[in-house]
Amino acid sequence: MGIISTVSLKAQASAMMEKEGTATTLLKSISMASEADKLEKMMLYSQQKVAVILNYPEPQLPDPDRGFFDLGMESLLAIKLQKELEDELGISIPDTTMFNYPTIREIAGFFVELIAAKNKSINGKEEDLPPNIATMSEEEVIRTLNILLPPQK
């Protein structure tokens, strides 16, 4: 049993490192891209995630302008997608995000803003709030501020 546990732990650790490497690569790729390319890269990544969650056949990707629920995503799948994106991108995503940004294109734009805000706060540059803050719920504003202003230790 000890060998199986060790193998299982190694597999889990390897999967976590691979996931972190993918997220780091994606975040660097988005950070270094031109403004026009940032949205395209995030949109492609989001399309691929949605395609996996909705069991699309391999090369097929969902229409980025169709609503998540029109694509067949139910509430539980939306929550699953949100949690996976949080884990993979290392950002907090407000619970209402999937409903406030109901298409892949809209959610990709929101993620690009969050990633840019996170990068600016990490790099110590003066931070502008995301331009859509006026339309955010109180919970979204609080979670966004938590990303921008991590707790002091």
Describe this structure in words.
This protein has 153 residues and is mostly helical. The protein is 65% helix and 0% strand. Helix 1 packs antiparallel against helix 2 (35-53). It is globular and about 40 Å long.
Q: In total, how many beta strands? A: 0
SS-derived structural category: mainly alpha
Radius of gyration: 17 Å
List segments where confidence is low: pLDDT < 50 over at least 5 consecutive residues: 1-17, 125-129
Task: Name the helicity range.
Answer: 55-70%
**Strand residues, percent:** under 5%
**pLDDT averaged over residues:** 75
User: Major beta sheet, specifics?
Assistant: none
SSE topology string: HHHHHH
Shape label: globular
The helix tally amounts to 6
Which oligomeric state applies?
Answer: single chain
First and last CA, distance: 40 Å
Give descriptors for this structure.
153 residues; mainly alpha; 6 helices; 65% helix; disordered N terminus
Short description:
Helix content is 65%, strand content 0%. It is mostly helical and 153 residues long.
